[in-house]
Specification:
- The protein is an alpha/beta fold and 259 residues long.
- The chain has one domain.
- The chain contains 3 helices and 13 strands, in the order αββββββββαββββαβ.
- The chain starts with a helix and ends in a 25-residue tail after the last strand.
Length: 259
């Protein structure tokens, strides 16, 4: 090889080595996104107009892998959130800006953040695996001192003097629903019994849940059966997760598996 060729090869090697090292050390986009969103393949994106009002919109998305872009499934539809609006949960408060509310027990705010969608429930029976049939004895415990805090149990298990929500009395809201896997405990008192359920009216806020028409709840039960994540965010915070969430320009896919 001629001297000039040696110099050229050396220059290429000098450029290639750091480039390859950079590529080898690069992390997939999903690894910088908050859990459980990072690895999610199905997403229920709930966007509130502000922190302090219950009006919001919900849109469904899916992707083939954590490295692929999100695809919209149908248009956005109206939902309602807590009567107090929303507040950052304790688990995502690191994303909060000055004067943005933090959720606490009893504040009537839905928790801003990212959560897995859990088991289906309702007074309407269902063959879905793990479905929780709501009966006269079904309650959700919001007593912080109880070992059953934030759990759906029977009144017999909870005890007669523990503060609970009697779920069978919450009709039509609990005809159909889904548990939001909200990782709270009595010590943090960061809110409890967060659900997706049927709304009372299109303008009536909830105690901190996400509510919508019954057909949409039923569709979400199907959509989330294979696993899904719900994101609850105010519009002003969407840009903080721009690399993780669908782009505003994303168009609905031709196939809408949630319908």
């Amino acid at each position: 090889m001629r001297p000039s060729a040696h110099r050229t090869a050396a220059m290429l090697a000098a450029v290639a080595v750091p480039l390859l090292s950079s590529l080898a050390g690069a992390q997939p986009r999903s690894q910088s996104c908050p859990a459980p969103l990072a690895d999610a393949r199905r997403l229920v994106l709930v966007t509130a107009k502000s922190f302090n009002e219950p009006a919001a919109e919900m849109q469904l998305y899916e992707r083939d892998s954590a490295a692929e872009p999100w695809r919209a499934l149908g248009a956005a539809e109206p939902v309602v959130l807590g009567r107090g609006g929303i507040g950052w949960s304790q688990f995502f408060r690191r994303f909060a800006r000055a004067r943005e509310p933090i959720k606490i027990e009893g504040d009537k705010r839905a928790p801003a953040g990212f959560y897995r969608i859990g088991r289906s429930f309702g007074t309407v029976p269902s063959p879905r695996p793990g479905h929780i049939r709501v009966t006269d004895d079904t309650v959700c415990v919001y007593e912080p001192s109880s070992p059953h805090y934030n759990r759906i149990v029977s009144r017999t298990v909870a005890g007669p003097d523990v503060r609970v929500e009697n779920m069978s009395r919450m009709l039509p809201m609990y005809r159909r629903g889904l548990v939001v896997d909200y990782p709270t405990d009595g010590r943090s008192q960061a809110g409890s019994c967060i659900f997706i359920h049927v709304w009372h009216t299109p303008t009536t806020g909830t105690a901190g849940c996400v509510a919508m028409p019954e057909p949409r709840v039923e569709a979400l039960q199907e959509f989330s059966a294979a696993g899904a994540v719900i994101a609850i965010l105010p519009q002003q915070a969407l840009s903080r997760f721009a690399a993780c969430l669908p782009k505003p320009s994303d168009k609905p896919a031709e196939r809408a598996s949630a319908r």
